[in-house]
Design goal:
The protein is an alpha+beta fold and about 200 residues long. The protein has three helices and ten strands. Helices cover about 20% and strands about 40% of the residues. It is globular, with a radius of gyration of 19 Å.
Length: about 200
């Protein structure tokens, strides 16, 4: 009986580690499309716009005008991917600015903004809310779960190094779980080290 408990404890330790090492469910970067991207439902875009800063809204309105789009067509400036369902009443959508048509509002020199939008069904009605918003060079949704939500990974780079943060959902929001710093040494060898998440 004790051996069985020890094996179960070991298995419970190994499964989360294996899940973290598994392939991401979604990978996105500044200049690369993600598989299954499509124009999002208007409700997904509206959930994000409700949290946007006034200057972003003004800039987005300028893009819409420059592209000859109506307000209802603003969603064509974004792309989304529906992630595998978490339950029968909840689904998460990854939202990002589209690569084409291009609108500068949610891009930087080498980075882009992105959001996880929760779609929840309650009493037969769908409700949408921003679960996470980020900015970086690359973003991944991981198969590991925490408090019923996917874990995520963000990467931000400069000319000389990249910093990667793995985040887990804590029941309220995402918080740092593991951080690394990647740079090249004098011989050009890539060195990745753990670092404090701060």
């Amino acid at each position: 009986m004790q051996t069985r408990k020890n094996l179960l404890s070991l298995l419970l330790l190994i499964v989360p580690i294996a899940a973290l090492a598994a392939e991401p469910i979604l990978t996105a970067s500044t200049e690369t499309h993600s598989p299954d991207e499509r124009i999002p439902a208007q409700e997904i875009v509206e959930a994000m716009l409700q949290t946007a800063q006034p200057d972003d809204l003004e800039s987005l309105a300028s893009c819409t005008t420059e592209q000859g789009l109506t307000t209802a067509q603003t969603r064509s400036l974004f792309s989304s991917v529906a992630l595998p369902r978490l339950s029968t009443t909840e689904r998460i959508h990854f939202l990002r600015p589209a690569l084409q048509p291009y609108c500068f509002t949610f891009y930087g020199a080498h980075l882009f903004r992105y959001w996880l939008i929760a779609e929840r069904e309650q009493a037969g009605a769908k409700h949408y809310a921003v679960l996470w918003s980020g900015i970086g060079d690359a973003f991944e949704v991981l198969p590991a779960m925490s408090h019923g939500q996917y874990s995520i990974r963000e990467t931000n780079c400069t000319a000389t190094a990249c910093r990667t943060r793995e985040l887990r959902f804590n029941g309220q929001t995402y918080s740092d779980a593991h951080c690394t710093h990647t740079a090249f040494d004098k011989r050009g060898k890539e060195i990745t080290r753990d670092e404090p998440c701060s």
